[in-house]
Amino acid sequence: MVFFFKFANSKLKRMFKNFSLGITTYSEAHRFIKKHKLWGYVVLPGILNIILLTIIIILGWNFAAQITDYIFDLLGLNKEITGFTKYLVIGLSYVLKFGLRIIFIIVYFSIYQFIVLMIMSPILAFLSEKTEKLINGSEYPFSMRQLIKDIIRGNIIVVRNIFVELFWIIIFFFVSYIPIIGLLSPVVLFIIAGYFYGFSMIDYCSERHKLSIHQSVHFVRKNKGFAISNGIIFYLLLLIPFVGVMIAPSYAVVAATIGTEKIRSTEEGLVSIGNKKWKK
């Protein structure tokens, strides 16, 4: 029993230490970007991010109107209506369109990390590599063959994370109907979302160091506190109008790289699977 409590206590200490690391590395990321004048790497992903968000909003705006018109046609509410009923239908139409547009934006943020990983992957991967090079002088020669392998590997991880996160979302959707316990579901889902956001940012380092998918998952699980806090701050930055959308991807990647290098620099940060180790 004593051994169990000591083991649990060491796990909690490690998790809180890593959680704190995920928060403090954002301020370090800002100083790092400022010191090394990496603003160009911040602006380009930011512009792509704004373009993606704009496309989603435009599509969602138009699609919401089409869905509303289709529903009203089915209900026969698009016919000539007079009197008070006319104003009631117009009001209902605005409410429905607004609600659908909000849903589209929520869905966008729900799958955001996967869109980032797939579309902005080359830029963010390069920024992560640039950050590591400035930290410890690491050099990684370009290889088209390796790039293609990394893209395929990255997409496999994206698909894996989509299904794993969806599984937990479904579980806690039903848990939310349980009295009292269900009140914790939104908090748990927020933490899960943060974990997978952080996973996406940390995986650029895993990919560069030739970790297999299994090794990458093992590393993130071992340092889940770091992944969660990195992802949570990333998500909160996205909520800042305009500025957040511009800086969130780049700051998250730089912070994840700085934190990962700190973890790698300690003996306990080594990933040991079989006879393989991720060494300094």
Shape: globular
**Unreliably modeled segments:** 2-7, 268-280
From the alpha-carbon coordinates, what is the Rg to the nearest angstrom?
22 Å
Major sheet details: 2 strands, antiparallel
Helix coverage percent of residues? Answer: over 70%
Order of helices and strands: HHHHHHHHHHEE
Spatial arrangement of strands, main beta sheet: 1-2
Individual helix count: 10
Strand proportion, as a percent range, falls in under 5%
How confident overall, as mean pLDDT? Answer: 77
Through-space gap between termini: 36 Å
Q: Report the structural category.
A: mainly alpha
Could you explain how this protein is built, in words?
The protein has a domain at about 15-45 and about 120-265. Helix 1 (about 1-35) packs across helix 9 and helix 7 (about 185-210) packs across helix 9 (about 225-240). It has about 280 residues and is an all-alpha fold. It has helices spanning about 1-35, 40-75, 85-110, 110-120, 120-135, 145-175, 185-210, 215-220, 225-240, 245-265; strands at about 270-275, 275. The relative contact order is 0.14. It has a two-stranded antiparallel ribbon. It is built from 10 helices and 2 strands; from the N terminus they run ααααααααααββ. About 80% of the residues lie in helices and about 0% in strands.
